[in-house]
Amino acid sequence: MHHVVSATTNPAKIQAILRAFEEIFGEGSCHIDAVSVESGVPEQPFGSEETRAGARNRVANAKAACPEADFWVAIEAGIDEGATFSWVVIENRELSGEARSATLPLPAIILEKVRAGEALGPVMSQYTGIDEIGRKEGAIGVFTAGALTRSSVYHQAVILALSPFHNAIYR
Question: Which parts of the chain register pLDDT below 50?
Answer without folding.
Answer: none
